[in-house]
Amino acid sequence: MMEDREARIRALFPLVKKIARRVHRLIPNSDPDDLVGEGSLGLIRAVDSYDPRRGPSVEQYACRIIAGAMLNGLRKLDPVSERVRREIREADRERYELASQLGALPTQHEMEKRRPSLRRATTHAHRYTPLSLDGPLPGGEALPGDCGSDPAAIAAQRCERDALREALRRIRPRQRDVLALHYFRGKSLHQIARSMNISPQRASQLHVAAISDLRKSMHGAH
Q1: Residue 160 placed within a domain
Q2: Spatial CA neighbour of 206 closest among 119, 117, 99
Q3: At a CB cut-off of 8 Å and minimum separation 6, what does 24 contact?
Q4: Contact, 32 vs 24, CB < 8 A?
Q5: Which of 38, 109, 163, 189 could anchor a disulfide with 73, C-beta 3.0 to 4.6 Å?
Q6: Residue range(s) defining the domain that contains residue 87
Q7: Helix (H, G, I), strand (E, B), or coil: what is residue 78?
Q8: For residue range 52-102, what is the model confidence (pLDDT) as tens digits?
Q9: CATH value at residue 196
């Protein structure tokens, strides 16, 4: 029996590495070795608790247990509680639902008025989330410019940034919302379509039109 168990674990172990690669692609900050370690424990639990009478194959059952073990391991490493993460997710969802109704994204201050617990949750998340040199800064944070660089290059960069801000003000609000969600919030066009209650084709049209209008505005500014 022990030999059969050991053979089954060895046969299914490639699933652990496959799922670890998939999770690492979705969560780049995760450590692949840690994922494999947590997944291996999940695989052992899956082999020991598998009951063929319940329906799914041993591979299907093991995949669910392995992935769950990896995600649980990542949650243990997160210094921010799931309750805080959930509050921020729900606030984001409500914000984009309001944007689709009102035609403009509510500000953070407006959302905090609607949800009194959001300010505390956001502060907690920023305070306990470690910064990465490879990742973006938290919202509202910025690093000072490099004063040792070429002054002409700094001036040109500032002019381009100001021109872009002015061009963004000129385009239609729905186009601006699509650009904000896509380029600043990292949402796909399908996700934007759902949050704005429009079809993916319409979201794509708004995106193309916004880019075109931005180019025309920027060209006119120069």
Answers
A1: yes
A2: 99
A3: 30, 32, 35
A4: yes
A5: 38
A6: 80-128
A7: coil
A8: 888 788 899 999 999 999 988 887 776 777 788 888 889 988 988 888 887
A9: 1.10.10.10
CA distances from 130 to 33, 121, 125, 137, 178 (A): 20, 16, 9, 10, 29
Place of tokens 């020991």: 48
Residue that has been written with the tokens 């999770």 in this structure: 23
Q: How many structural domains comprise the chain?
A: 3
Q: Rounded to whole angstroms, how far apart are CA atoms 6 and 43?
A: 11
Question: Which residue blocks in 55-81 are alpha helix, DSSP H?
Answer: 58-77
Contact 55, 158 (CB under 8 A): no
CA-CA distances (angstroms) from residue 89 to 96, 117, 121, 125, 180? Answer: 11, 13, 11, 12, 17
pTM of the entire predicted model = 0.42
Q: What are phi and psi of 154, to 5 degrees?
A: -65, -45
| Burial class of residue 108 in the structure, from the number of CB atoms within 10 Å of its CB (0-12 exposed, 13-18 middle, 19+ buried) | middle
